[in-house]
Design a protein that fits this description.
single chain, four-stranded antiparallel sheet, about 45% helix
Length: about 230
């Protein structure tokens, strides 16, 4: 039953979408499923790592710390995405910390098993590379935003980036509902929690977003994007 569920999940993961049924059988034999509690650290920056994680359910945050308690969230990862690939590929230490934002489950693959697997399927590393390139572009954009944008632009970009990766399009706009706290949003935007909260209130007053609990709905994307310039 569990293997059948994992098969249905992996078919929908872009990285493995071209695999035949026999190929999926081989993949299913090398994955192991693990669960994580809300708030549990899956791994820390500088940990040794030789495992690839494919998030099956839930949401995790990838972050770095300055050692003084200041956290910078680099990315929010949701179901169907992968993480831990850098250490898995180069066998070096983890470059960031990954924490479960809610109850999560992930399929994990050991480095040696995955390397043997992708030797037979060259399309998989190519798809991984495309995803990594998109992430690097996003990182470059974030660095530029943190250097040059004002606080409004930083918060607007954080909301739009999260929506682009994890938002759900509905009739009245794009909904982001991934257990993000005000502090999480502030850490992504590179501003203080107080500043992020104040700007959210002003964006809501202007009618470009709606905030309800930890859910943010983008009602007017064009207006929000104007804050980037």
């Amino acid at each position: 039953m569990q293997q059948s569920t994992n098969r249905q999940f992996l078919i929908k993961v872009q990285m493995f979408s071209d695999l035949s049924d026999p190929d999926l059988d081989i993949l299913l034999n090398i994955v192991v499923e693990r669960s994580y509690r809300k708030g549990e650290v899956i791994f820390h920056a500088e940990d040794s790592g030789s495992v690839l994680f494919i998030l099956k359910s839930g949401t995790v945050k990838i972050s770095i710390s300055d050692g003084k308690g200041k956290e910078d969230i680099l990315k929010i990862v949701s179901s169907g995405d992968f993480f831990g690939e850098m250490s898995m590929l180069d066998d070096q230490h983890r470059s960031a910390t990954v924490t479960a934002m809610e109850k999560c489950s992930a399929l994990i693959i050991q480095r040696e098993l995955f390397i043997d697997f992708i030797k037979k399927y060259p399309q998989i590393p190519l798809k991984m590379l495309a995803t990594l390139c998109r992430r690097f572009r996003k990182t470059d954009e974030k660095i530029a935003s943190l250097r040059f944008a004002d606080a409004y632009g930083k918060v607007a970009k954080a909301i739009l980036d999260i929506a682009d990766e994890n938002g759900i399009r509905k009739e009245n706009g794009i909904e982001i509902s991934h257990m993000l706290s005000r502090q999480d949003l502030a850490d992504i935007a590179g501003v203080t929690r107080e500043t992020a909260t104040r700007i959210l209130i002003e964006f809501q007053k202007s009618g470009c977003i709606k905030v309800k609990g930890k859910t943010i709905s983008i009602l007017n994307e064009a207006t929000l994007r104007r804050e980037l310039f």
